[in-house]
Amino acid sequence: KDILPLRHFSSTLTFTFTLNIHIIMESACVEGDGRLGEDACEHCGHHSKRVLNFSAGPGRLPEQVLRQAQEGMLNWNDTGISLMEHSHRSAHFQGIVSTAEENLRKILDIPPNYKVLFLQGGATGQFAAIPMNLASGEGVVVDYIVSGQWSAKAAKEAEKYVKVNIVNKVGDSYSSVPTEADGFNFSPNASYVYYCDNETVNGLEFNEFPTVPEGSVVVCDMSSNFLTRKVDISKFGLVYAGAQKNAGPAGVTIVIVRDDLIGNAHKFCPSIFDYQIMTKAGSMLNTPPCWSIYVVGLVLEWIVAEGGLDVFEERTQSKCRLIYDVIDSSRGFFTSPVEVHSRSRVNIPFRICSADGTPSAQLESEFMRAAEDNNMMYLKGHRSVGGLRASLYNATTIEHTKCLANFMQEFMSKNTDQ
Questions:
Q1: pTM to 2 decimals?
Q2: Which residue from 96, 272, 314, 373 has the fewest beta carbons nearer than 10 Å?
């Protein structure tokens, strides 16, 4: 209580303090046999001091990556200074960026006629950057498929710069992914067609590439399911993702853009959002988010070492099946607001219902309290929709997910006759 509140420290010191505390606590529990010394989880036998993080973002990072990052924080690669102190113009950091891009190209099999950018501003920044780069000129129209809150926000932001056509009917709730059968109304000469592959808030995911007019430039927000399955990049004009779900910490946004779409930005487009300027500058027109890019690089190395996207696609499917099986077999105690064919593999919203079938705020509050007592955090649903939500990003293992599934079963048993 005698320590100054964290707000008195710089953001950098706060991050250093928090990161080291978490890892030092865990390291202190390691015994001679390499197992974490904490008692096994009563739900699945998982040994770990670290809390299970089911947050929608920032998401859990692999423990191996956190340990590497901890070392780089103080003395990166035996250079005597922190990675955060190295110049972004140095050969050291240039090597980090080059290796990260090389691994990303390998993981996603990115064709050579696409550029990879590491930008600031988050996915929300790309809501503006995309129309400013891909929709210049008079009388230009862009098409947006609106499937949830994030694609709706992207469309609204784009309206500041270009005429936006919403191709599908948007209802009061987002319970299913729009399809051609719903009656898409595409513009005849749209500069691009935009969609969000996975809606983090609403828990919807496109299970296949949407039907679009032949020759369309397709732009896709893959922030929350990025690197969870194989993707044919050649089908897209541009793909982007905020790193803080599956690729690393918050602070950097990965943009993969086809060469022929670069160089047509509006004159009023800020330089840091101009794809041509940032390409020529190697993503370093100004000081980039060095630490975030560094950790992204570590995560990409981890993905390669684990076996690539074939492995993570299989794991992701196994994890979501564990949770959906509990929901679907609960006879209405747990319910999903999303139609089965549109359910996300990585963001699972759900409700807990009373005997009359209506969501129970009391039971959901009790669930969250009990979950935290069992070292499971951030299961509260988005503030705009309420309820509960479990996010199963790449660093969340099948073992972690079993902990949650077993806990859900036990909570249901304690609160019903089942």
A1: 0.87
A2: 373
SS3 category, 241:
strand
152 residue type, one letter: A
Distance (Å, whole) CA 219 – CA 271 = 21
**Helix ranges, 28-163 (H):** 63-74, 91-108, 122-134, 149-158
Residue 116 token pair: 């990879």
Q: Which residues are tagged catalytic? A: 150, 221, 245
Q: Of all residues in the chain, what percent are helix, strand and coil, respectively (each to 5)?
A: 40, 15, 45
Q: Which amino acid is located at 53 in the chain?
A: N
Do residues 301 and 94 lie in contact, with contact meaning Cβ atoms separated by under 8 Å? no
From first to last of its 418 residues, what are the pLDDT tens digits of the chain?
A: 343 443 333 344 333 333 343 333 333 333 333 333 345 555 555 555 689 999 998 999 999 999 999 988 887 877 887 777 777 877 778 889 999 999 999 999 999 999 999 999 999 999 999 999 999 888 899 999 999 999 999 999 999 999 999 998 887 788 899 988 778 999 999 999 999 999 999 999 999 999 999 999 999 999 999 999 999 999 999 999 999 999 999 999 999 999 999 999 999 999 999 999 999 999 998 889 999 999 999 999 999 999 999 999 999 999 999 999 999 999 999 999 999 999 999 999 999 999 988 999 999 999 999 999 999 999 998 888 889 999 999 999 999 999 999 999 999 999 987 5
